[in-house]
Specification:
The protein is of the alpha/beta class. Helix content is 32%, strand content 19%. The chain has eleven helices and 15 strands. The strands form four sheets. It has an eight-stranded parallel beta barrel, surrounded by six helices. Strands 12-13-14 form a three-stranded antiparallel β-sheet. Helix 5 links the parallel strand 8 and strand 9. Helix 5 crosses helix 7 and helix 8 crosses helix 10. The protein is globular. The structure holds guanosine-5'-monophosphate (5GP).
Length: 353
């Protein structure tokens, strides 16, 4: 047994220190980024991603986010014909203009591999997200290698892991972008059920460092609850930030509406929850426990306003830190360790925010 005693931080443990700057307006901050991936592909857009979850990674969300310059990782259980149509933006036999602002998500089993093959026969898939709860197994590394060998021209996102050595291993196995975060998600109960996890802010900083050393990229996945957290994730070195609950509860996300005390809510749940297992996998298998919550999220309306709120916060953070482009935020940001990030005095009776 060994205990690592170096303190690791979460978003709530730090703040971005404001700095003198020559920027005049937050409207001039450029949030677009152009990435050249290590296997030859590229991405140009705002590097905020919808998580591959029910109520978030839907086709309707994808369409809206693409029009706003953002990215969507489609959830695993979308009807294949609809997915092909959305990825190709044309129903033809093989579309030469694959969607750049979306990824298909697969797990690491043979059915997923076959599904990818069937889809790729119809439309060349630009971005493949290989998503498993625990990216630390050799079989996962081998699966990433196999997908890379078969699809040399696709961008491969793989995860989730939380430490630099596994980021490097997955990049060397053929992935372009590594998804980092275990146990940090809003509807995730992994830390409670297993005792496993890694504070997300330190995870991002350490994994970004490892990835950038190999010309790789990372997606900071999970744990952002405010636009300020998204800014902190970028400041820590994230190339992309993936959001679940912050983008949930939108009109485009669908999901069952619930009324509580006259207020409208939308049902939202973790993809390892009992509900998700019942919906997609025929129930919780006898040897597993649920590792996700099912919650009620206040209905938020159109995705456009949700995105405006998030990007407005990130733009403002850039001006405080003296970064004219999002690209410069991690270089400009100095973080301070703190014990209190904001006042909570009116949290329970706020009228508007
Ligand atoms: P959020 O932005 O809501 O804090 O986190 C979203 C992320 O939580 C997802 O992208 C995914 O990595 C993770 N996640 C989603 N569902 C579950 C779940 O049921 N269990 C766990 N452990 N993580 C989940």
């Amino acid at each position: 047994m060994r205990v690592e005693t170096e303190l690791k931080f979460d978003f709530d443990d730090v703040l971005i220190r404001p700095k003198r700057s020559t920027l005049t307006s937050r409207k001039d901050v450029d949030l677009y980024r152009t990435f050249k991936f290590r296997n030859g592909g590229s991405y140009h857009g705002i590097p905020v991603m919808a998580a591959n979850m029910d109520g978030v990674g839907t086709l309707e969300v994808g369409e809206t986010l693409e029009s706003l310059g953002l990215f969507t990782c489609y959830k695993k259980n979308i009807d294949e014909a609809d997915l092909i149509n959305a990825l190709g933006h044309c129903p033809g036999p093989r579309c030469e203009k694959p969607a750049q602002h979306a990824a298909i998500t697969i797990g690491r089993n043979e059915q997923d591999y076959d599904k990818l093959e069937r889809i790729h026969k119809k439309v060349s898939v630009a971005n493949i997200c290989i998503d498993v709860a625990n990216g630390y197994s050799q079989s996962f590394v081998d699966f990433v290698k196999r997908v890379r060998d078969t699809y040399p021209h696709s961008n491969i996102f793989a995860g989730n892991v939380v430490t630099g050595e596994m980021v490097e291993e997955l990049l060397l196995a053929g992935a372009d972008v590594i998804k980092v975060g275990i146990g940090s998600g809003s509807v995730c109960t992994t830390r409670i059920k297993t005792g496993v996890g890694y504070p997300q802010f330190s995870c991002i900083a350490e994994c970004a460092d490892a990835a950038h050393g190999l010309d790789g990229h990372i997606i900071a996945d999970g744990g952002c609850t405010t636009p300020g957290d998204v800014a902190k994730a970028f400041g820590a070195g994230a190339d992309f930030v993936m959001l679940g609950s912050m983008l949930a509860g939108s009109t485009e996300g669908g999901g069952d509406k619930i009324e509580i005390d006259g207020k409208e809510y939308v049902e939202f749940y973790g993809m390892s929850s009992k509900k998700a297992n019942e919906k997609h996998n025929g129930g919780l298998k006898g040897y597993r426990t649920s590792e996700g919550r099912r919650v009620a999220i206040p209905y938020k309306g159109s995705m456009q306003y949700i995105v405006q709120d998030i990007l407005g916060g990130v733009r403002s953070a850039c001006t405080y830190a003296g970064a004219s482009k999002l690209k410069h935020l991690s270089k400009c940001a100095t973080f301070i360790r703190c014990t209190k990030t904001h006042s909570k005095v009116y949290e329970s009776n706020t009228l508007e925010i």
